[in-house]
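Database export, one record per block. Field names are fixed; values are copied verbatim from the stored entry.
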Amino acid sequence: MDTQLNADFSDRVNRHRWAEVVDAINSHSMPPDTEPQPAATDSASFIAWATEQTVREELINRSTTIVIRRMNRAEYKNTIRDLIGIEFAAFSGSQ
């Protein structure tokens, strides 16, 4: 399994890894206390960058993802009426 973290935010798994990194930095669990600590402004800049990249890719994915959903009875009836110009009782029987 590839566990390398790279700057390809278009990959959903990679975006999830970046979110984990941001969470670790926000919770101050990374870097460990035994390691040199970055300045607060550096951490904030990094978090802002990673969050911006993640949000940008999520918005791109939402704009290109097609979600199929079922219409309710009223929507179906109105769609048929709009397409062919016929009023009818959609699914008038009990189901």
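Remark 1: The mean pLDDT is 86.
Remark 2: The two ends are 49 Å apart (CA to CA).
End of record.
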